[in-house]
Design a protein that fits this description.
single chain; alpha/beta; 31 helices; 34% helix
């Protein structure tokens, strides 16, 4: 093993002998280092003379000079060293810098003590180890209370504390206290500081403060002058009186005011004593003054302030004011808070606005309890009406009444409490929204958390997923225990009232103002993106929600991140919530890091049960979660007060019957923005569902929306109501006018003319004879089955759609319906393979879409057999991001994608050919699939092929697609209406 070289010894001083082991045992005594003492001197500046311009000298005060004047006093300290000749303590060569200098020739323990004392005394004025404090350090200005333990440590260190002047002595006492003393002065009063040192009063002495933590007293008419130094309780009021030899006079005419108003305040700042014959007022506790302002619509503003004699009202929250009695306030605050918490779930504070049932609880329970408390005074308005709580047990009765429809009953619900019937609509709405209590129109209110109402709540929850939702408030005789639909609150709802208030506030607006993008955004917005941000900021300023319905690939995420940065820049501290499909969460996280790195983002992709962490309003700027997690943890998300909620790919929330939609409706937020390229997929009810989340109250009644818009626009039954009819046209124009300020829609063709050309072609593929025969046989069988079910479609919807799906699968490949037909091939797959092979040979790349994963897998097998490399993605793919990146950067020529997995969140401009293997019910979904390739970043022409099985149900699907596409175009795309700048007329349309 290699030897470790010995370290080089430090060089010795020239001429010094090298040490040996014997030197470790030498006991030769070292020369004693000089000791130090702390010199204390009471000093005074010489009197001012108008005949002399020289600076006034400061010298040690003499007994005669102190008796003559107690002004301009100061107490100085400095180090002293003992004289070798006389043995007396002298200044010598000891100075503050000398004793602090490393290697100083003084006793090391003494030098350290003086160095620490200098740091304590100088504080922030000490600019470094050699900052020169001068000959003397003034104790009067020492701010740190660490001075006293340092002085106490002097004796243990062997450092005497002595007076430097001949006629002075110094004493360090254990403690002192200064109080305010009130004595008579003729008909007036005189205030002086009364000082006790170690329990004994100090008489006939000049007393001065040391910082705010100590004092020194110098005896007058004494020789020598005894200087007493002590740590002290030194209230500011007493400290202000110390240098005033004659104290402060209170004139006779101000005596009563002083005793009434000033003495209580002085008592909270210092101990106050009074001479015999002076009667001090009784100490008064603070009073909490509760001011109530009741307004219309069951609203009350509650404000609490503290009242002290002689003071203006003080805020309810503690603020460190010396005039406040913190302990007394705490007792009253606890009593107020206890009564509040027993009745209300609203956080308790000194200023709050209550609404609805909270106002009733406050007026009926909290206010009477507060009126009984000591130290509380109620001021302000009385409640405009009497609120009373119904405490009886609810009685629930269900009745059925025969209707004219066979096999159906009308359903009646009768709820009574304390003998009075409860109105149907507000009760069911409150139960649906999970309200805690319900306030009725006459001021009565009651709890909804009662076992008797639990079953009714269960019926409502169960009914939300039933197909009978669209049939009105009826149930089948086969489902009597279920409730299908309850009537909404229409124009009397809270949402409708709030909406009218918002809209009224916009009357003065003439359009969307220009606004600079926030500096936190690391991107240059395209002109249409800048316009989109300004529109979003306009909605935010007015606390309105809306739908950002831009085409896929136009940067909706960037526009929304710009809005979020703007919200934070405006000072909003509450968190922002973004809800998106699970597969899009990584994209959102990456885009936020790229474009808005200053925003802190927390990704919540697991439930609280799985992660062990609950969602709260504290922490990040943006909380990013999935629709699935929000649905499962809806209570946690509903409990947070969100500044803004963004629903990305909002078509996921288009069904108001689902638990997801109800969970989103429960979120508490100032503004909700839905982002989707397809705000209308199947019906106008999709649009209503999104607007009910973003702009609740615009169309508060689902029933009226169906009657006024859905039926005349989608389901024309009379000539003037069909497509192109005048009545339908008028209703369509009215709908577009109402929603225009709240929907922003730009297409790629309108705002991105640089996009390359897109060509679309429909390929009709004839079935092989064996395939055709099997399809016709299946068609006849399913036709008979379906025609017998259509009279009662509400009950048989699932069976009907199963038959339609069976026919669609048969159009693609018989083996998808029954494995025994595996010998019958698929003409579509033959056509696909022929074209893909040709395209790939020319160096192009291809996207292949199907909504049936089983058919997509057949296509993958055919490509494998032909030796064509491909990537595959469906809803079951676990490593989605890796698969996508593999296609982008790899050599796979084709990418097979299912509708569920590839309908959103993908940018695949590496491909310039798109094949749609089967038509989808929803034309918007097809357009989204094509947009995976035809979007910003694509620099080649995109060719789209739709493969349609000739003379099959697929042609019927295409006809349905066209009808839906016309509906979408007429409502949100026609003439690019929703991409134009808002005008005053548009905004006034909100008020219709």
């Amino acid at each position: 093993m290699d030897a470790v070289p010995a370290p080089h010894p430090d060089p010795l001083p020239r001429g010094a002998a090298a040490p040996t082991w014997r030197s470790l045992l030498d006991e030769a005594p070292s020369r004693a280092a000089p000791a130090l003492a702390l010199g204390v001197e009471l000093r005074q500046r010489e009197p001012y003379s108008a005949r002399s311009w020289a600076p006034r000298r400061v010298e040690a005060v003499t007994p005669r000079a102190l008796a003559a004047s107690q002004v301009d006093l100061t107490l100085g300290i400095r180090p002293l060293v003992r004289s070798d000749r006389t043995g007396e303590w002298i200044k010598g060569d000891a100075s503050w810098n000398a004793v602090r200098r490393p290697g100083a020739p003084y006793d090391p323990a003494h030098a350290r003590w003086f160095s620490d004392l200098a740091r304590i005394a100088l504080g922030a004025r000490s600019l470094g180890p050699y900052a020169d404090p001068g000959e003397w350090i003034r104790l009067d200005a020492v701010e740190s209370p660490l001075l006293w333990p340092q002085l106490r440590a002097a004796a243990a260190t062997g450092i005497p504390i002595i007076a430097t002047a001949k006629h002075q002595e110094v004493v360090v006492a254990a403690s002192a206290v200064a109080t305010v003393d009130i004595a008579p002065d003729g008909d007036g009063l005189r205030l002086r500081a009364r000082v006790l040192v170690d329990g004994a009063p100090i008489e006939y002495a000049a007393v001065r403060a040391i910082g705010d933590h100590g004092l020194y007293a110098a005896a007058i008419d004494a020789d020598p002058i005894v200087i007493t130094i002590a740590p002290a309780e030194l209230p500011s009021a007493a400290a202000a009186l110390l240098p005033l030899t004659d104290g402060l006079a209170v004139p006779a005419q101000e005596r009563a005011e002083f005793l009434r108003d000033a003495v209580p305040r002085l008592r909270r700042r210092a101990t106050v004593t009074a001479a015999a014959g002076i009667r001090l007022p009784a100490q008064t506790d603070p009073v909490a003054v509760v001011t109530t302002e009741f307004g219309r619509d069951d609203v009350v503003d509650v404000r609490i302030e503290w009242s002290y004699p002689g003071l203006p009202r003080l805020p309810f929250a503690a603020d460190g004011d010396r005039d406040r009695d913190v302990d007394a306030e705490a007792g009253v605050r606890a009593a107020l808070e206890h009564a509040w918490g027993a009745a209300l779930d609203v956080p308790f504070s000194g200023s709050v606005r209550l609404r609805g049932v909270d106002t009733a609880e406050f007026a009926g329970r909290v206010l009477p309890a507060w009126q009984e408390l000591d130290g509380v005074r109620i001021e302000g308005d009385a409640p405009p009406r009497t609120y009373r709580e119904l405490t009886g047990s609810p009685s629930v009765a269900l009745t059925t009444v025969e209707s004219s429809d066979p096999d159906w009953f009308d359903l009646g619900i009768i709820v009574t409490i304390d003998g009075r019937p409860i109105p149907f609509t507000p009760l069911f709405r409150a139960l649906t929204l999970g309200r805690r209590k319900l306030l009725l129109a006459d001021g009565a209110y009651f709890s909804l958390r009662h076992p008797a109402l639990d079953r009714l709540k269960e019926l409502i929850d169960e009914a939300a997923g039933m197909d009978e939702w669209e049939t009105g408030p009826r149930v089948s005789r086969y489902q009597v225990a279920w409730w299908a639909e309850f009537e909404d609150l229409a124009d009397q709802s809270d949402a409708a009232v709030a909406w009218r208030a918002f809209a009224d506030g916009m009357r003065a607006e003439t359009g969307v103002p220009a606004r600079a993008a926030p500096g936190a955004i690391r991107a240059t917005l395209r002109p249409y993106q800048q316009a989109g941000f300004e529109w979003l900021a306009f909605l935010w300023r007015h606390r309105l929600g809306g739908i950002l319905a831009d085409d896929m690939g136009l940067g909706k995420t960037l526009q929304l991140l710009t809005l979020m940065a703007h919200v934070r820049e405006a000072g909003e501290q509450r968190p922002i919530l973004v809800v998106a499909p699970t597969s899009v969460l990584p994209t959102w996280s990456a885009e936020a890091a790229r474009f808005a790195p200053e925003l802190t983002v927390r990704v919540v992709d697991r439930t609280a049960t799985a992660s062990g962490t609950r969602v709260t309003g504290n922490g990040p700027d943006v909380v990013l979660t999935s629709y699935a997690v929000l649905r499962l943890d809806e209570d946690d998300f509903a409990a947070v007060d969100w500044a803004l909620v963004v629903l990305d790919e909002a078509q996921f929330a288009k069904n108001p019957k689902t638990r997801l939609h109800r969970a989103l409706a429960r979120l508490r937020a100032d503004v909700v923005i839905a982002a989707t390229g397809t705000p209308l997929e199947n019906s106008l009810t999709d649009l209503w569902a999104l607007l009910s989340l973003t702009s609740p109250g615009l169309f508060p009644s689902a029933r009226r929306f169906r009657e006024e818009y859905v039926t005349p626009i989608e389901q024309g039954k009379v000539p003037e109501n069909v497509e192109g009819g005048p009545y339908r046209a008028a209703r369509l124009a009215r709908l577009r006018r109402r929603i225009r300020p709240l929907v922003l829609r730009r297409t790629k063709e309108l705002v991105a003319p640089e996009l390359p050309e897109k060509q679309e072609q429909q390929l009709r593929i004839g079935l092989d004879p064996a395939h055709r025969a099997l399809y016709e046989k299946t068609l006849q069988r399913e036709r008979q089955k379906v025609l017998g079910l259509l009279d009662d479609l509400d009950r048989t919807r699932v069976i009907v759609f199963r038959s339609l799906t069976l026919l669609r699968l048969m159009s693609l490949a018989p083996v998808l319906v029954d494995a025994k037909h595996a010998h019958i091939g698929s003409a579509k797959l033959d056509a696909l393979l022929e074209r893909v092979a040709e395209i790939v040979a020319e160096g192009h790349r291809v996207l292949v879409f199907s909504q049936f994963t089983s058919f997509l897998q057949l296509a993958a097998e055919r490509l494998d057999a032909a030796g064509i490399r491909h990537a595959y993605l469906d809803g079951a793919t676990r490593r989605r991001a890796a698969v996508i990146e593999g296609f982008r950067s790899g050599d796979a020529a084709a990418f097979l994608i299912s509708l569920k997995a590839g309908g959103f969140g993908l940018t695949l401009t590496e491909a310039d050919y798109v094949f749609l293997l089967d038509p989808w019910w929803n034309p918007a979904a097809e357009a989204q699939a094509v947009d995976r390739a035809h979007r910003i970043g694509q620099d080649r022409r995109v060719l789209v092929y739709r493969l349609i099985a000739a003379d099959t149900i697929e042609e019927k699907v295409m006809a349905l697609q066209q009808r839906k596409a016309r509906l979408f175009h007429s409502v949100v795309d026609d003439d690019a209406m929703f991409a134009q700048a808002l005008t005053a007329e548009d905004i006034r349309g909100l008020l219709e």
